[in-house]
Design a protein that fits this description.
Elements (H helix, E strand, L loop, with lengths): L2 E8 L14 E4 L2 E4 L2 E4 L5 H11 L4 E3 L3 H12 L2 E8 L7 H9 L8 E5 L5 H15 L4 H11 L3 E6 L4 H5 L5 H10 L1 E8 L2 E9 L2 H15 L3 E10 L4 H14 L4 E5 L2 H7 L4 E7 L1
Parallel strand pairs: 1-2, 1-6, 6-7, 11-12
Antiparallel strand pairs: 3-4, 3-5, 8-9, 8-13, 9-10, 11-13
Helix pairs in contact: 2-3, 4-5
Length: 283
Amino acid sequence: MKKPVCISSESSLDLPSSLQEGLDIAVVPLTVILGEKEVDDGSIPARKIYDYVELSGKLARTAAINVYAYQAHFDALLERYERVIHIALSSKLSATYQNALLASQDPKYEGKVTVLDSKSVSAGIGFQVYLSALLAAEGKSVPEILSVLKEKRKDIQISFFVEKLEYLAKGGRCSKLALFGANLLKLHPEIVLKDGLLVPGEKYRGPLSKVVNDYLASVERDAPDFDPSLAIIAHTVMPEEVLLTVRDRLYKRGFQRVEIIEASGSISCHCGPHAFGIIYLKK
């Protein structure tokens, strides 16, 4: 007998495995491209991606999932589930949403597959997937899940800072002028997600420890009213002692559960090492 609803997404969702346990969540991988080599996102750690960039001088790239791969993914899921809700990477940052939508428009998926633009990235997607999967586990219908998610997702707060803008600039996610200004002033910019786009926020200066402290201070300042049930720390090869310090500070701030995840290869390719962000839900 088939289960009622599966929540699906791409490998860029950055949802800790501890939050996926016992939930019906399916993930389809993007492709990470290292020169002539192509690998599934999730099969290569961020450190190896950065080693490739350092040795080759070339930026690792990513490729969106094509329509046929999505259809194979949906076909496999519909053998075990009655309905699939696929939550895609922001349509303003990738072609994944459009390809998933095109795939879902095949008549054989009518009434069975729903594709939603997350308007988010990394653990901002993961948070939406987690909330949706909890609702599915409670027995909520697809319309009920979509209604709650569309209402809740505007309250998901996601921001991060990057040590250097080179990776975002090379990937076309920021301008060369912004890169020049950040390098000239030795700034570590905060990136904030707004309406599916990455836009500049605060600008931090100094060593990594100071930048982390200043970023945390700005998060605390901007989050006077938050849902204490969960915060996710997403990072790219951040030193462990920094991550544990941040986790402890979030617990002291009042969060009841704090999960840490190293970002997927598809996210790490564009952010570079020592990128770091906190994702939580406003009340």
